[in-house]
Structure formats: C-alpha cells, structure tokens
Amino acid sequence: MSRDHRDDEQNNDDNNTTTAETTIVFSEQNNSLLDEDDYDDGKQQVDLEKNGGGGGGKGKKKDGNKEYERLENGCDDKTNKFITKSDEWPPWKRNLAAGIWIVIFVSLNLSLSFANKYLFTIGFMNPVFVILTGTFVTFVGSCICVFGFKMSTFPKAALKRRWKMILLCSTFQALTYVLENISIISIPISLNQIIKATAPAFIIFFQILIEGVRFDATSIVCTVIIIIGAALSVVKNPSFDKWGFFYSLASTIFAVLQSILISSLQKDKDLTTLSIVLCTSLPSVFVIIPIWAYKELPSLIHDPYPDPLKPWLIVGALAFAAFFYNLSHFYIIKYTSALYYAIVGNAKIILLIVISSVIFHTSYVAINYVGMGLTLAGFFAYNIIKYRQKVFDSNSTIDHTEASDCESNNNNNNNNNGICLDILNRLGNNNNNNNYNNNKSPKRKNATPKSQNQSPLLHSSPLPNQSSINNNDKFTYFKLIIIIIIINQPTNQIISNPSNIQFQRLDNRIYSNLLLYSSSYYYSKMLMICIAGGTASGKTTVCEEIIKRLENKRISVICLDSFYRPLTHDELTTVASYNFDHPSAFDWDYATRAIKELKSGNHFNIPTYCFKTHNRLEETTPIADIDVIIFEGILSLYTQEIRDQMDIKIFVDTDSDTRLSRRVLRDIAERGRNLEGVLYQYEKFVKPSFDEYILPTKKYADVIIPRGADNVVAIDLIVRHIRSKLQDKDNNMKPNSVGNH
Ligand SMILES: Nc1ncnc2c1ncn2[C@@H]1O[C@H](COP(=O)(O)OP(=O)(O)O)[C@@H](O)[C@H]1O
Ligand SMILES: O=c1ccn([C@@H]2O[C@H](COP(=O)(O)O)[C@@H](O)[C@H]2O)c(=O)[nH]1
C-alpha cells in the first residue's frame, strides 16, 4: 500500500463510524486478506447532490446544452420525467386522481362502444371515418397538451431516432382500430372482446417465432385454454359471422404487434405515453385516409341520412371522447403504473363482454357460455401468472440491490417500461454477449485495434461481433416485415370484401392491455460489478484479467467514460480549462438509467464518447442478456444510486506516480495529447479531483486491489467470488424457488 493511501485510510478511520460491510484489501506481499475498518457512508456523495445529481456545474449553464434545456423545461434530473405540480401531490391526492381517470377511462370506453353501435343502428355506416376523426382529434388534442399545456416534452430527438418504429407503430395502430371497428359490424361486441382475449396466444406465437423463446408450461396451458374457449364461444354461435371474426382476429394481431412496438418505444427516456400518442396519431391519420377514401367516401357523399345532423354530432362527440380516452391512458400510467393500467384494461374487457351481452341481449347457445367461461378463466389465469412473475421479477431485482431506498427509484423508473420486457429489445439482441463497451483506445495484448472515432466495442473476448443500434434496427425491421407479410395475406382478402362491412364501435385501445402479455418470464440473474480507481490505475486491465478468467461467461464492460457529457461549443473553445475529472463532467442521470435498466434485465444502448472530439458519437452499443456487467470508471463508486445496484464493489489502488507515468504514455499514444497538455491537465484537474472525489469513494468498496492487474491473488479471489455468486443466482433461478417470493 502506498503511503498516501495509508494516510487516507487512517484519516477515514479516525473520522468515521462503521457500517455493516467489511472492506477487504488484497495485499500480495503476504498473500493475505486484510480486514479494514469501514467508513462513514454517504458523505462524499453530498457533493453530487449539491450539483443536482451531477447535472450541475458546467454542463447545466451552457447555452445549447440539451441537458440544460431539459432541466429548464422542468425535467427531473434523476428520473428524467417531466415534472408537474402533481408529482408533488400527497399519495391520497394522486390516488384520487388515478381513481377519477380510471373511472373516465372505463366509462369512455363503454360509451364509445355503445355510442358507436347506436350510430350504426341509425344508418351511419362509416366506421373508418369515425376512427379517422377520432385519430385526428387525438392528434390535435395531444398537440395542445404537449405544446400548449406542456404536459410532456415534444420528443424531437426520440422522433429522429425512432421514426421508423413510430411509423410502423402508427400503421399497426390504424389497422387495429379500423379492422376492429369494421369487424364489430358483423359480430357482437362481446364476441369481439372474446377474440381480443386471445391476444396472449399471439404474443406467445410471436415470441416463439421471432425469438425462439421457450415458455413455461403454465403460460402455454392458459393460452391453450383461451384458444379452446374462444373456439367454443364461436361454435354454433347464432351471431357468428366469419368475416367479422377474421377482421376481429386481424385487428387483435395488429394490436399485439403494436403493443410490442409501444412497449419498446416506452423504454425510450424521451417518450411518455402522451408523446407516443402525439407522434403516432398523425401518421395513423395518413394511413386511415386512403382506406376511408376507398371504402367510404363514395357512400358518404351519396347516402343521405334521414336525420343528417344527428350522426355528425355523435361522430364529433365520439372524436372528442376518443381523445380524452387516450388522455386517460396517460394519466392512469402517470398516477399509477403501466402494470396497473394493464390490469384496469383487462378488467375493462371483461366488463365490456358482460355488459354488452346484457344490453344487446346477445344470443348464445350453451356451448358458447362454456367457451366464454373458459376464455375468461384462461385470460384471468394468464394475467395473474404474468402479474406474479412481474412482481417476483421486481422483488428479485430489488433484493440484489441490498438497498431499501432504491426501491422507490426502481419503481419510478419502471413505471413506463418495467412490465413490458419487450420482445423487440431482445429481438434486437445479437450474440455478442461478451462484449467490451469501452470508449477507450486499444489496449495491449488481446485488445482489438480501433481508431478513436470508431464504435466503442473493444473485444477482449473470443466473440468479435461488433454491432451498433443501426444494425439491430435493420434486423428488427426485417423480422417485422416478414411478420407483416405473413399477417397481411388474410387481411388483404378481408379488406377486399366490401359486402361484409357493417359498423359497430369506435375505439378500443388494445395495446396497453397487451403490455402485460408481452412481459415474459424473466429473472434478474445478472451480477453487477463496479471497478473504481484513479486514472490509469489499471481498472481496464483488471477487467480484462477478470474476463479472461471467466471465459465461459457472458460479460460486458461498461465504462463510465461513455457517459461523459458532450462538450458544448463554448466548452470546446476552452477545453484546456475543462475539468473532466469533476463529477459534473458526467451525465449521471444517463449512467444511472443504464445501470438500472441493465440490472433489471432490460436492454440498453450504451453511448459512445470520443476522447478526441469530447463529444458523443452516433453509435451506441446494445447490451443485453448477460451474466456479468462490469461498470468501470474513475467515479463509478461516486453516487449512491449506482452503488446500490452493485453486487461487488472494487477499488483499484495504484500509487500516484505509477498512474501519472502510465497516463502520460497512454494519453500521448492513444488520446492524441502532448506531454505538456497531459502534465498540465494532471496537475490542474486530475490530481486535485482524485484527492477530492475519487479517493474518498474507496470507502465504499468491498474489495481494494493494490497495484491493479499485477495483483494476481486478488484477481483470482475476485473471480472465484464471482463464480460462486453466479452459482448462487443459478440455484435461486430454479423453478421451485419462485414460490419463495
Ligand atoms: N499492471 C500493469 N503493468 C504495466 N502496465 C499496466 C498495468 N496495468 C495497466 N497498465 C498500463 O497502464 C495504462 C492504463 O491502464 P488502464 O487499465 O487503461 O487504466 P484505467 O482503466 O484505470 O485508466 C495502460 O496503458 C496499461 O497498458
Ligand atoms: O474528453 C475527455 C474525457 C476524459 N478525459 C480524462 O480521462 C480520464 C478517465 O479515463 P481513465 O481511463 O479512467 O483514465 C479522466 O481522468 C479525464 O481526465 C480526458 O482527458 N478527456
């Protein structure tokens, strides 16, 4: 141990109280493990909080800085959610608001269905037009909410990033509603809802088709029950109509596809439910217009209605109701969670089946009642299973964090996306699980050479598969297009048969109900390790050594460096006076989200930072489906939120002279610097920041490794510990452990 480190630890000993954890220092001199006293928790991190979760300092003040704009607009730094007054409401007020919106949601849905039915009975046979006006008013209304009332941000960046997915989603959305409305003309609402209840079967089908996912027996049994039930519901049903049935089925399939896309879109930090409605409604209008022009325009012009004003008033009212119905989705999710919303949506389907059967005196034969009972039972069971799995999933994730206060953060972050561990994210996965997400330059030994501006993947593993989000997107779209081709075949036939068009109801936002189904059986079995330490202390080298020894495991290394804030124009002009070693140089919000998402078993695209341009590059590196994540960086132990996610916390403790000499060589060779620049930066920023911010985080480490990668004993012991932790997790994954939660 170097002298100054000893001094530092001594100081800490003097000053601090003990915590429950024990820090282990690996000393190779005597090959023994030395127990160290622990230190006071949470003291250093105050600095970050003072700076607004790391968002403070320089980054916030500069013009043109996106983060600054975001914060100025009222976006919370930690959760990345838009802050409104209601976020500060007491729980009772939020619950009351949620309750009111749930009532609005259910009653609007029922009213839309029944008013639509009434429209058709008075001879207004333009279901596509009803959807068109509803979608258009939804677009105008969401514009007013976003631009006028600033209820959500306009997701410009997300729109640019995800425009293809948004367009596809809009198309599915339009087809879902149009086909559904057309279908209900020839079959009763209750039958239509029964058909919609078969959605889990399609979810499972698509997951098997697209991903090759294997499902647990209970999900399969529920799905089989649903299908048998749905079949029995239609057999000999006096109200059955084959085209109505096919339209409804096609609508359900599109809704499933739409739900898959929506759940993926909801993972985007910039997309709220409201902004998704805004972005998808306009393209939907453009998809619906040609269908409407082809199907209904001639009859709309030529067929006079007995009472011309009445239907138009109803259509107008329905369009506004459709908008508020959409708005209610946003508010229910806002005040509760997406999971809650999905449950409400499922309950609504059942309510609709029962009420519509009673109101419209739908006639059934005995076998249909058996079928409906079976469908509902399967549907209930499926949802209960998914709900339990989800709850188990979040419990197991929280357990690993060993922190109670991260629970609320987890819940917050998962509100929009926690329940929809979406197919698409895993659709996009490739097999480069053992990837090295590192924005640094090529390393010695096995590192793959790359230029500074290349994609940041540095493969220390035998899997040389580089990838970027673009490639993933292509792959994903390719798969979706295949699905569309398969699905479009029967759909085209149906649409081309005008004689079957009768109309019953307006809007039924099925996608949100389906979010629950798209949640697959998932366990958080990943191990998260944090490696902190001063610059050039050997963090990366230690990672490489660990990876080498864990050859058969899927490991990803994420560098805190990837989350450097891109420098603004002003900052670039005075880059020599920019402190890259200060906590405010990092985008903590982004880094925290990445760690939490990955820890929850979700996919995340890691950004790429370029040390030469001090900017973020276009490429991102998708990370998912791995056994071990190593989060490495000078300040990786700095924030409590990130520390709370870690299973093992390591500090690489290398003496400062060694670090300086390594840094000089590295920065000149790999980061395009000169000697004067490196020394100036080291003296002015690197060393003071190390003393002030980095070294104090050593107290949070479970393991301290003196001399970095040279300390073979330490690395061997860590690897052994990782193996045993992974084994523990594997054991806990066994099916019979589910019941314990
Ligand atoms: N044990 C070691 N012996 C010799 N050189 C080392 C050792 N560990 C790291 N280095 C060199 O020091 C530099 C910085 O190491 P690195 O692992 O990248 O540190 P960090 O990730 O902490 O910045 C690299 O050029 C690396 O080759
Ligand atoms: O644009 C940048 C960003 C960072 N730095 C320096 O990099 C190190 C962190 O990387 P390590 O690999 O952990 O050393 C940090 O000390 C910054 O000073 C930079 O020079 N330019």
Folded structure, characterized:
A hairpin with a 4-residue loop joins strand 1 and strand 2. The strands form 2 sheets. An 8-stranded mixed sheet has the order 2-1-10-9-4-8-5-3, sandwiched between helices. A two-stranded antiparallel sheet has the order 6-7. 57% of the residues lie in helices and 7% in strands. It is of the alpha/beta class and 741 residues long. It has 27 helices and 10 strands. Mean pLDDT is 70; it is low at 1-83, 392-523 and 734-741. It has helices at 3-15, 46-50, 58-61, 66-72, 91-121, 127-148, 156-183, 189-196, 199-211, 217-234, 242-265, 273-295, 297-302, 309-335, 338-359, 366-401, 406-414, 423-427, 469-495, 511-518, 539-549, 569-573, 588-599, 640-643, 656-670, 675-694, 712-733, and strands at residues 23-27, 32-36, 436-437, 527-533, 555-559, 604-610, 615-623, 628-632, 648-653, 703-706. It has 2 domains: 3-41 and 525-730, P-loop containing nucleotide triphosphate hydrolases (Rossmann fold), CATH 3.40.50; 89-399 and 469-518, no CATH class. It is elongated. It binds adenosine-5'-diphosphate and ligand LLZGTKA7. The site of ligand LLZGTKA7 has 11 residues, from loops. The chain crosses the membrane at residues 95-115, 127-149, 165-187, 193-210, 217-237, 243-262, 274-292, 312-332, 339-360, 366-385. Residues 41-50 have a biased composition (Basic and acidic residues). Its EC number is 2.7.1.48.
